[in-house]
Design brief:
This protein is of the alpha/beta class. It is 65% helix and 9% strand. The chain folds into 3 domains: 13-333, ABC transporter type 1, transmembrane domain (ABC transporter transmembrane region fold, Up-down Bundle), CATH 1.20.1560; 349-432 and 517-606, Rossmann fold (3-Layer(aba) Sandwich); 441-516, 3-Layer(aba) Sandwich (Rossmann fold), CATH 3.40.50.300. The termini are far apart. The structure holds adenosine-5'-triphosphate. Residues 30-321 form the ABC transmembrane type-1 domain.
């Protein structure tokens, strides 16, 4: 990339950072700008008054008998005192408004990150790149936009002050000017160089950091606590975590060591040059080419020049760092959908009578080349209960993801009432489905919310939630709990309660039974239920789902035989389809899959 391109890119990214800061809180951005401007003006004023005071003191030294000179000294002392007071107050107010603005910006950026995370397509979660980008966005820190705004102002302030000091130095002896450059430029180059090195290292190491964070989570979360203890995995995982952290630390310290060495050398050179200049000035003063006042002024302001120069270097390198790291946040914010959104979506006609049709659907997961769904044709008519069966890994769950547009097929189409799903509004389309996956969510929320999440925009939850619980066979155990529907389902927080796996499954089922959609999709809905609960559920299944269409995936014959129509998947293809009786008679895959189960049923019945 050419230097001009880089410059414009940096400029636009700086503008974008500032606009985030502005949008997050106009009031505090204005206030912190105002107080900082006041701080700068009073700071410069104090510097000017200091110079005037030194001049007057020099005069007094030259003509001690002039009484008005003493009055002038006092006058400048008072003015400098007042200026310093104004400086201290505005500095405190600027600090406070900067802090407040920082909090507002941090919340705003967190909000943007969350908004992006909940809107990106499922495909992102399956790519390590997404997780790296999210981690980097988080690392880039929500404080940075606020820092950039205040850094820019501090930079302006220090640049102005330094300019004033340069003028003062030039007034003493213009030969002294290069020392300012020597004190600042090499330090700046070293800082920027190492900021870049550290940034690139951090980018390369994101995945390593995530691996360490994952191991830490394995060791500390309740999800894995049982297996970790019984299989005594603790020491093994700790060792693995330590090795990663050791590698990260060694690499980081190596960079820090180099940086400290280079920066110390640069600072030592600057100091040598300063003392040489002091010697040069002292010599000139002794020769009568400078006044003693000049020497005093040089000593006075050099201290300031040095700290100002250091601050300037720090602010410039910080600005550079913030710009680099904010680039990582922008990368995350700029993620685009992989499931394309139609610009002029077609409204779904008669959504209450939905026919879902899959036509020659093929699909390979993003980043893979093997089709896991191959030329699938399928139909679910209004009110029909359809079963999908097949061995593990045959593609049943993948097919649900395609039906619900979590992914789009690589070939063929998914149609709803004859409209290609791609041409519908994604949100409107997804509203048609109530889906419970095998790995359904356990929300650490109340029972009520766990069920209501199945239809978050629905009204009358006070009635619909208990009804859904009743339909899913969950109402019985919910009513027995002290807080009933208000019971918090977690042991993470006070007064929470943990459920059994089967009870959780009933809660998840109740979520799908909330009357939001037209098609209920249940992936292994009864895998953890006892036989009584399972048979009760399917006894009057159609009434329970209010005669909506349903697609049920199950490995249990007792569940499947209830379906109006059955599709049999094998290695991504629909190999057989028909009613239970016709498929059994066919003596094909379906027969092989279920004849053993059927034998047990016959045996039990005999
Ligand atoms: N996110 C993914 N990325 C890549 N491949 C995947 C992904 N999820 C599943 N697969 C692959 O797709 C194939 C079908 O998996 P799928 O989960 O659809 O099977 P399934 O029939 O639902 O199996 P089960 O009965 O075990 O739930 C498998 O070979 C699996 O390895």
């Amino acid at each position: 990339m050419s230097i001009i391109n880089k410059f414009f890119k940096s400029f636009f990214s700086l503008m974008r950072i500032l606009s985030i800061s502005w949008k997050s809180s106009r009031k505090w951005t204005l206030l912190s700008t105002f107080f900082m401007a006041l701080e700068i003006i009073s700071g410069l004023g104090v510097l000017y008054l200091l110079k005037q005071m030194v001049d007057v003191v020099t005069n007094v030294l030259a003509e001690p008998e002039a009484a008005e000179n003493v009055g002038a000294v006092l006058y400048y002392v008072v003015l400098t005192g007042l200026g310093t007071l104004a400086y201290v107050i505005s500095r405190a107010l600027a600090g406070f408004s900067r802090e407040t603005q920082g909090i507002m910006v941090a919340d705003y950026v967190d909000n943007i990150v969350q908004k992006t995370a909940i809107s990106v397509d499922l495909a992102f979660y399956e790519s390590p790149l997404y997780h790296d980008t999210l981690e980097r966005a988080r690392q880039s820190g929500s404080q940075r936009p606020a820092q950039v705004a205040s850094n820019l102002m501090l930079l302006g302030k220090n640049a102005l002050m330094l300019a004033a000091i340069v003028v003062l130095l030039a007034s003493i002896n213009w030969h002294l000017l290069p020392i300012i450059l020597i004190a600042i430029v090499p330090a700046l180059i070293a800082r920027i160089y190492f900021t870049r090195i550290l940034y690139e290292w951090q980018r390369r190491r994101t995945q390593m950091e995530r691996r360490a964070a994952y191991l830490d989570w394995l060791m500390t979360s309740d999800t894995h606590a049982k297996e970790l203890r019984l299989n005594q995995l603790g020491d093994y995982l700790r060792g693995k975590y330590k090795r990663i952290r050791d590698d990260i630390r060694v690499e980081k310290l190596a960079i820090s060591r180099k940086r400290t060495t280079v920066e110390s050398i640069v600072a030592a050179i600057a100091s040598i040059i300063f003392f040489s200049s002091l010697g040069y000035l002292a010599w000139n003063t002794a020769q009568g080419e400078n006044s003693v006042g000049d020497l005093v002024l040089f000593l006075l302001i050099f201290q300031r020049a040095q700290s100002m120069g250091q601050e300037l270097v720090q602010q410039l390198s910080k600005l550079y760092e913030d710009h680099l790291y904010m680039g990582m946040l922008f990368e995350f914010m700029d993620m685009r959908h992989t499931v394309p959104r139609s610009s002029q979506p077609i409204k779904i006609a008669h959504p209450e009578h939905t026919t879902l049709k899959l036509e020659n659907v093929c699909f390979a997961y993003p980043g893979t080349y093997k089709d896991v769904i191959k030329n699938v044709n399928m139909e679910i008519k209004p009110g029909q209960v359809v079963a999908l069966v097949g061995a593990n890994g045959s593609g049943k769950t993948s097919l649900i993801k395609l039906m619900t547009r979590l992914y789009d097929p690589t070939e063929g189409s998914v149609q709803i009432n004859g409209i290609n799903a791609r041409d519908c509004d994604v949100d409107e389309y997804r509203e048609l489905f109530s889906v419970i996956f095998q790995d359904y969510s356990h929300y650490a929320e109340s029972v009520h919310d766990n069920i209501r999440f199945g239809h978050i925009n629905g009204t009358d939850a006070e009635h619909t939630v208990p009804h859904a619980a009743e339909m899913a066979g969950a109402a019985g155990f919910i009513e027995k709990m002290d807080d009933k529907y208000d019971t918090l389902l977690t042991r993470l927080f006070d007064n929470g309660k943990e459920l059994s796996v089967g009870q959780w499954q009933k809660i998840a089922l109740a979520r799908a039974f909330m009357l939001k959609s037209n098609i209920v999709i249940l992936d292994e809905p009864t895998s953890a239920m006892d036989p009584v609960a399972e048979s009760e559920l399917f006894e009057n299944f159609r009434e329970r789902i209010n005669h909506r269409s349903a697609l049920v995936i199950s490995h249990r014959l007792s569940t499947i035989r209830l379906a109006d129509y059955i599709y049999v998947m094998d290695d991504g293809e629909i190999k057989e389809s028909g009613t239970h009786e016709s498929l059994f008679e066919k003596k094909g895959i379906y027969h092989d899959l279920f004849s053993r189960q059927a034998k047990y049923y016959q045996h039990d019945l005999s």
